[in-house]
Fold this sequence. Notes:
Elements: E1 4-10, H1 14-25, E2 30-37, H2 44-57, E3 65-66, H3 82-85, H4 107-117, E4 122-126, H5 131-139, E5 147-153, H6 168-172, H7 174-181, E6 187-190, H8 192-195, H9 214-226, H10 233-242, E7 247-256, E8 267-270, E9 278-284, H11 286-299
Parallel strand pairs: 1-2, 1-4, 2-3, 4-5, 5-6, 6-9
Antiparallel strand pairs: 7-8, 7-9
Helix pairs in contact: 1-10, 4-5, 5-7
The structure holds beta-D-ribofuranose and calcium ion (CA).
Residues 13, 15-16, 41, 84, 127-128, 153, 161, 167-169, 192, 233-234 line the site of beta-D-ribofuranose (BDR).
Amino acid sequence: MNRIPIIIDTDPGVDDFFCIAIGCAFPELFDLRAVTTIGGNNSTDVTTGNALDILKLLHREDVPVARGADSYLVNEFDEPVAKFHGANGLGDVEIPHSDRQIDPLPAWDKIYEQAKLFPGELVLVTVGPETNLAMAFNKYPDLKQMIRKIVVMGGSLDRGNVTEYGEANIWHDAEAGKIVFATGIPIDMVGLNVTRTAPLKQTIFEGTDDDVREDVKDVIRKLIDFRNGEAMHDAIAISSLVSDDIMIWKDAYTYVVDGEVYNRGQTVADYDAKEKNSRVAVGIHLGAYYKVMKDMINRYK
Ligand code: BDR
Ligand code: CA
């Protein structure tokens, strides 16, 4: 099987750490072309620094980091969400600092550059607000034809986590989410309705190898503790790309409700629509997901 060229668009981010760690851990599956950053969990300066530091810890400083936007399409960023991601955006876990430079291209230009290199092959894994993607689609009208698929951690088919309907990534920049879902590019939506059912606890280390790097294990342990064993949403989205069978999918036409309305950020999946633009996750095989997590841990030696 050919390796899938991917870009991870992210706001690291406690659970984003796990998404990046999985994206880096399976080079036989993924050709990780870039990590592009967006704020949300914290400022874009902080999330970009975190992306660089995470890649250093994972020994993947070959992966370029391209910095993204400093505000949403329409709204400004909110205050950092220290409760979910710590004051430093990484659960207050300290990891070694990287002095590496960011890529000279901004996120949207990096996405376009890589799409042109891999037309019809590039997969975008988006686990933060979708601002950078929307900016790329707005700037480059021919980009849509070049992207194979977008894997979205975002939205929910039941309750949100910011409001009754709004999940953070989509709610924060619902205008961007609306643009991305309307591109016509096949979308795999892994929403909160599924991710919140998949806790990640210290038991994940059971059965993993003894010679996994202590520094990586230590960070993982601390991040799991910071979240009290709750779900690492972003990891679940990328796991679905490691193994398609992890999710139970349903085809749907899915759209995002934007604007300043009570259900801002709602993702509405119409299963009966004639034209479908997405597969939405409606269930998860937990054993298969935990296997990906354990395999990921075992790769860091
Ligand atoms: C999403 O919001 C962010 O805080 C997390 O990193 C995840 O991407 C969950 O709603
Ligand atoms: Ca995230």
